[in-house]
Amino acid sequence: MMDWTDRHCRYFHRVLSRHTLLYTEMVTAPALVRGGALHLLDYSPEEHPVALQLGGSDPGELAEATRMAVDRGYDEVNLNVGCPSDRVQSGTFGAILMKSPDLVAACVEAMQSAAGDVPVTVKCRIGVDDQDPHVVLPDFIARLKAAGITRIQIHARKAWLQGLSPKENRDIPPLDYDLVHRMKAAHPDLHLSINGGIATLDAAMDHLKVMDGVMVGRAAYHQPYDILADADRRVYSVDNPVLTREDAVFAMEDYIGAHVAAGGKLAQVTRHMLGIFAGQPGARRWKRILSDGGHRDGASFDLLREALPPRAA
């Protein structure tokens, strides 16, 4: 979710759900340790619980980046062993690390030493390229378990590092939910979450009959209300009032006002809100007005009022 789940996106998602665990976009350890890009660690206190997702393959750098995350108060530090993008592969980050389980084990051991009581977790694929997932994934999980990892998020697709684009890697390799479910049955002591192709809250609830958690990416971004608005009640059994779509928009007014007053552009926030009316009357007009006007100088929350569907204005 690089360039998607930034701090503005996460703040908006937290408006919709108070209890779901939010993940940052992947931040590379070299960017933090060597590049000094500490602004990538910024978040609002309201975002808790929030996890920092790190990319990297150097145990020392990952340990240092983990210490930075702990100092900033993150609730979890996650190592990404699933991203298939070319720029990630060139830095030996992401899914290519599925081919180097010993290195991954060394990385997470270093991260755990730096994390103290903050959980270190791993997001992985079921395999890459010509690997047999039914052989590779059980071995990979066993190695992580031996290294002290107790929480793993598994994207239920292979990643093809040659021949498929990152976008194609999200759709073309077939999903193998059964394999991931079997991993949970084989490791009742581990907290295992499933990811990949889960497009509705109902589908997430079905997986939760077997798995400990469900990670939702694109659907939560493109249809945030449908995925998140009722998650507290259905997943966490917390009787929070479910906001209307319109109430969720107005709950962002102060945040947007502060961002614009500090010199930020309206579109930096509203680009993450385009899907709030997905499937509803007026959704196309909402997206068009915000997309066309959000970058203009002086654009403010008034543009959201203008864009609201007529029944909600």
How many DSSP-defined strands? 8
Portion in beta strands: 5-15%
Which sequence of SSEs, written as H and E, runs from N to C?
A: HEEHEHEHHEHEHHEHEHHHHHHHH
- Total helical segments: 17
Q: What would you call the shape?
A: globular
Enzyme class: oxidoreductase
Domain DUS-like FMN-binding: 1-299
Binding site for FMN: 53, 123, 155, 195-197, 217-218
EC number: 1.3.1.91
Give your account of this protein's structure:
The structure is a single chain. With about 325 residues, the protein is an alpha/beta fold. It folds into two domains: about 5-230, Aldolase class I (TIM Barrel); about 245-305, Four Helix Bundle (Hemerythrin (Met), subunit A), CATH 1.20.120. It has helices spanning about 5-15, 30-35, 60-70, 85-90, 100-115, 135-145, 165-170, 175-185, 200-205, 220, 225-230, 230-235, 245-250, 255-260, 265-270, 285-295, 300-305; strands spanning about 20-25, 25-30, 50-55, 75-80, 120-125, 150-155, 190-195, 215. Strands 1, 2, 3, 4, 5, 6, 7 and 8 form an eight-stranded parallel sheet that branches. The longest helix is centred in the middle third of the chain and has 15 residues, at about 100-115. The relative contact order is 0.10.
Name its key features:
313 residues, alpha/beta, Four Helix Bundle (Hemerythrin (Met), subunit A), 2 domains, globular
